Amino acid sequence: MASPSSLDNDPGQINILVVDDADTILKLVRRSIEPEGYTVHLAADGIEALEHMKTVPMDVVVTDINMPNMDGFELTRKVVASFSSDVIVMTGMMEKYRYDQFVGAGAADFVQKPFTPDEMVLRIKRVLNERSSRDKILVLNDRLRHSQKLEALGQISTGILHEINTPLQFIQDNTQFLGNAFELMNGIFDPLLAGMNGGADTAETRLVSRYLPEKKDLEELQYVHNECPDAIGQILEGVNRIREICLSMKTFVHPDTIKLKPFSVNQCIHDALIIARNEYKNTAHLELDLADDLPDIPCNPGELTQVFLNLVVNAAHAVQEQKAAGDPGPGIIAIHSQKTDEGVVVHIQDNGIGISENHLTRIFDPFYTTKPSGVGTGQGLAISRSIIVDRHKGNIEVKSEPGKGAEFIIRFNTGTDPEE
Predict the structure, then answer these.
(1) What is the C-alpha to C-alpha distance for residues 365 and 398, in angstroms, rounded to an integer?
(2) Full-prediction pTM beyond 0.70?
(3) Are 221 and 212 in contact (CB under 8 A)?
(4) What is the b/e burial string over 353-387, where b = at least 16 CB atoms within 10 angstroms of the residue's CB?
(5) Mode of pairing for the β-strands spanning 261-263 and 406-413
(6) DSSP of 223-272, one letter per residue?
């Protein structure tokens, strides 16, 4: 299916299906609209048309009313119910039908036979223009809702993160106190345990033996003495990890100002990986190769984190699909950043299921998704492209082969001011 921008700029990406049981009409319509650059498909009846649409998504279906097997009204209803195509009906029997019958079936327009080539072209262009406007409005409304949700989430999360940080500080401070106290106590425990293990007969060892008469009691004390430093260290490591997640979430969900600010692309990648860790940790091995010499770029950190989050989650899902298809090999998600003469380039690559060629041309279209119904909205990559291209004046492209994974390449030009 063509995207709104392609409807305006690239007619060759638009598929039009013409359905009529008369071969002369099929040829006439094809001759009329092919010079406009549209890709024209033909079907002799409604059943053949529906079968064809299962394999090739159509932007517009032009159908006759009176046909064997399935008439144009039934075809129109089925197309509108099951596909996202617009329908133009054509008939030479206007005295038999009313306009409201066409509209009631779901048709976007109609053409009366006989028609001129110019009239058919104008009808199709009008429907395509309305379709483009409708899709753009849907995209804008969806992005507005998405923005409002993020703003509300940011406000709520700021309060939650504050509430988390307060008890987290208690845990960290008290654990550090215990660690320091244990180090001081080691000055007593180390020689005492050494004496006990060496069989020394001192007032101290006799006192310990009095309270720990069994050998196993001494072994338990030795075990606690050995394990406490590691336990304290693991608690502090866990606290630092929670704090890191909170900081990443704050960067991601906090409402940023409209004006872009210099920020590290690598930090945005790290933040996205922390948030997405649960998606990939049991699915794929992460290979991270981030250049140390990257310059900060003018950006919205939350928006860039969202882009990297979308791509990493998609990569994890692609690897899962490849494993479900029987691939026994290890899943890999590789992320590489580098400095170039023009600016900064980020590569995000996976060895997942890959993307077929017919999907590649529409992968960034709004509402287009290759995932099963109910999984994903088809907005992740469309929003990512808008953030990179429209908001940051960068570039995003994808390379892929089915069964061989996919690679997304994102380029930022540090010599260009995105605000201009």
Answers:
(1) 13
(2) no
(3) yes
(4) bbbeeebbebbbbbebbbeeeeeeebbbbbbbbbb
(5) unpaired
(6) HHHHHHHHHHHHHHHHHHHHHHHHHHHHHHHS---SS-EEE-HHHHHHHH
8 A C-beta contact, residue 86 and residue 126: no
Residue pair 14/38 in contact (Cβ under 8 Å)? The answer is: yes
| Strand locations in 300-405 (E) | 331-339, 343-350, 395-400
**DSSP 8-class letter at 288:** E
What are the residues whose beta carbons fall under 8 Å from the beta carbon of 328, sequence distance 6 or more?
none
Calpha distance 372→99 (Å, rounded): 37
CA distances from 382 to 99, 190, 361 (A): 37, 63, 13
CA distance 393 to 76: 42
pLDDT digits (tens, 9 = 90+) for 235-262: 888 887 787 777 666 666 554 555 788 8
Q: Which residue has the tokens 């080539």?
A: 117
Buried residues in 191-200 as b, exposed as e (16+ CB within 10 A)? ebbeebeeee
DSSP annotation of 2 reads: -
Q: For 260-303, how does the pLDDT look when each residue is reduced to its tens digit (9 = 90+)? A: 888 899 999 998 898 888 889 888 999 999 999 899 999 888 88
DSSP assignment string, 159-183: HHHHHHHHHHHHHHHHHHHHHHHHH
- Mention every residue, 6+ apart, whose C-beta is less than 8 A from residue 314: 380, 381
Relative to beta strand 284-290, strand 331-339 is parallel
As a whole number of Å, the end-to-end CA separation of the chain is 32
Cβ-in-10-Å burial (0-12, 13-18, 19+) of 87 comes to: buried
H or E stretch covering 41? strand 39-43
Q: What would the pLDDT profile of 55-89 be if each residue is shown by its tens digit?
A: 888 999 999 988 888 888 899 999 988 888 899 98
